[in-house]
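R.M. (postdoc): so does anyone remember the format we settled on? I'll just put the structure tokens first.
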């Protein structure tokens, strides 16, 4: 029987949910098997990225650190010295994915600003805190090379890492270092609770079109965290203390069927409680990282909202 969706969900999204696979796979996630699983469909993913890149008019090059720099033709014509740029962190449960990220492409094309997409080391080969430290180093290098006007963002596990980078920046600033805060933070459906204690981990188990907790995301969490405490704020930013120095503005997104809905709600609530300015976009009937499927009208609408928000932040800082 097909799952029921509210009438506000587009027919395109309903069809996409029907094609999705959220079965319990129970991947063992040993390094050897993980490396093999990453090869499955790799050629098709690369071809899809290249097709999207060409259609959007975005050029891609690798910098000396191994991260990707995504630059639109508009950006190349209009770029200014020390203009605003974006540090983008891809998702994939800390174990999959790459800097060849479709959402990063759409930000580069839509904003007309360079996007540095971080190619951080993946788990289980590289466990916490290696990925955060790599992303933080990319942030520091970008500030030196491109200037301090940076938007920081990520999706899913990448949003977790972006929030970890912000925590580390604030720690270092509190210790007296002159490391600039980002102008704003974009947190798309953050995988923020690696202990899996939020309400949506139960309520949306089997309702999210792509994700399961048992036998799937719980294994990703442990593959990344290793022996670290799953409630460490740098591992699970739902436990972060955002008090102290003023926070940059933020936007968080999720859906009512997102396995990580609770994570987004808890982080947004904590951000606001600490005095931060934070928008929350909650889409009825939508699942984890629906923005990643550019076919969906809901994805296009959210992308427009995100681009408008980013331009508004940049305009305030001009």
């Amino acid at each position: 029987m097909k799952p029921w969706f509210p009438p506000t969900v587009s027919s395109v999204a309903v069809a996409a949910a029907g094609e999705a696979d959220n079965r319990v796979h129970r991947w063992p996630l040993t390094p050897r098997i993980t490396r093999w699983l990453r090869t499955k469909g790799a050629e098709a993913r690369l071809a899809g990225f290249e097709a999207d890149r060409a259609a959007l008019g975005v050029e891609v090059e690798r910098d000396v650190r191994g991260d990707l720099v995504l630059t639109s033709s508009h950006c190349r014509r209009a770029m200014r010295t020390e203009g605003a740029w974006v540090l983008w962190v891809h998702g994939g449960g800390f174990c999959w994915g790459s800097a060849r990220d479709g959402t990063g492409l759409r930000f580069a094309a839509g904003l007309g600003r360079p996007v540095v997409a971080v190619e951080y080391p993946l788990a289980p080969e590289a466990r916490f805190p290696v990925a955060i430290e790599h992303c933080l180093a990319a942030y520091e290098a970008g500030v030196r090379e491109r200037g301090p006007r940076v938007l920081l963002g990520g999706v899913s596990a990448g949003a977790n890492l972006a929030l970890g980078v912000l925590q580390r920046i604030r720690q270092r600033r509190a210790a007296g270092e002159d490391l600039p805060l980002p102008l704003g933070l974009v947190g798309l459906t953050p995988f923020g609770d690696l202990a899996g204690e939020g309400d949506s981990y139960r309520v949306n188990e089997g309702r999210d079109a792509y994700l399961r907790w048992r036998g799937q995301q719980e294994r990703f969490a442990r593959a990344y965290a290793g022996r670290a405490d799953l409630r460490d704020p740098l591992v699970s930013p739902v436990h972060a203390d955002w008090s102290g120095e003023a926070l940059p503005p933020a936007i968080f997104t999720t859906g009512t069927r997102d396995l990580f809905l609770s994570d987004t709600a808890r982080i947004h609530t904590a951000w606001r409680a600490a005095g931060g300015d934070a928008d929350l976009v909650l889409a009825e009937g939508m699942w984890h990282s629906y923005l990643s499927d550019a076919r969906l009208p809901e994805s296009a609408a959210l992308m427009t909202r995100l681009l408008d928000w980013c331009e508004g932040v940049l305009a305030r800082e001009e």
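R.M.: ...and that's the designed sequence above, right after the tokens. Also worth knowing: The longest strand covers residues 150-155. The CA atoms of residues 170 and 245 lie 8 Å apart.
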